[in-house]
Amino acid sequence: MSERTPQRAVKAVIPAAGLATRFLPATKAVPKELLPVVDRPVLQYIVEEAARAGIHDVLLITGRGKTSMVDHFDPHPYLESRLEAKGDLTRLAAVRRTSDLAEIYTCRQGEPLGLGHAVSYAESHVGSSPFVVLLGDEFTEEDKPLLPQMIDLQAETGGIVLAFIEIPDDQVDRYGIASVSDTGTPDVVQVTGLVEKPPVGEAPSNLAVVGRYVLPAGIFDAIRRTKPGSGGEIQLTDAMALMLAEGTPVHGIVYRGVRYDTGMPLGYLQTIVELACQRDDLGPAFSAWLKDFVAAQKA
Ligand code: G1P
User: What's the structural domain count of the chain?
Assistant: First the structure.
């Protein structure tokens, strides 16, 4: 009997075609994925997270007015030669790093008809292999990686692997929510049901799907068979629920690190403050100022 050789996900897809209305007017001409967190755009943190997990092939699903996202990852010989001539080797290394992280590929989602619809554009790029989806406005703590464990688990099961955080009951209507059963392994659960953005009071649990997925290629066929759902959009959650109903194993890892959510102004500000405080160069001075500032607000 021939044994199945497990296939590991080696490509990532980042859906990033959205209009980002929550950040208007800042995002009228600048993609929200390029808003800076200290001195790196959000999207770079996401590509770095993929690269740390060994994923160096990244497909960006972009849309109208968002091509500058791709420029960020291009080599910039003129800028590099100027920095070299000035002897600014620290900045030179930072600039070069952006083009060394990954091979970036792009395709365009003509109309933003939902996350499932965005992911469907990746079919010809990823082919028949499993792949990772990283949503373009959230990323995880560098010291507590999530993707490697997800990729390993997907290679083992051949199914879908999700990541969850526990959220307060009154926030369930902002996320995909799962019903789960134990696997016997701490923080690894078997998913028994999935629902996109249920009304408060009607959710099966408080385990929310975060923006990291490892999916088998069968998702493309499931998306084709998925009708518009929450918000009138083709939802990835609904396509995954269809595969679950048809027998695909779906597991989840409960993430215990910090998830930085830059998709809304409050989370974006919190992310900047937290990461600025952690910086060796800026952290001490910024934290000291922040303490004084907060104390003065209370007075
Ligand atoms: C998307 C998904 C949702 C998931 C969330 C995580 O929603 O549809 O299932 O819980 O990302 O951030 P969005 O935030 O794009 O509305």
Answer: 1
The answer to whether 63 and 109 are in contact (CB under 8 A) is yes
- DSSP, collapsed to helix, strand or coil, labels residue 159 as coil
Return the amino acid letter for 3: E
Closest ligand 1 atom, CA of 137?
Answer: 12
Give the domain extent around 229: 12-263
Paired residues of 140 in beta bridges: 259
**69 in a structural domain:** yes
The domain that contains 215 carries what CATH number? 3.90.550.10
Taking CB atoms and a 6 Å cutoff, what residues make up the pocket around ligand 1? 115, 135, 138, 175-176, 196, 208-211, 235-237
214 SS3 class: strand
Question: Of ligand 1's atoms, which has the minimum distance to the CA of residue 263?
Answer: 14
CA dist 24 and 6 (Å) reads 45
Atom of ligand 1 nearest to the CA of 115: 8
Mean pLDDT, 10 residues at a time, the chain of 299 residues: 71 92 91 95 98 97 91 95 96 95 94 94 96 96 96 97 96 94 95 94 94 98 96 95 97 97 95 97 97 89
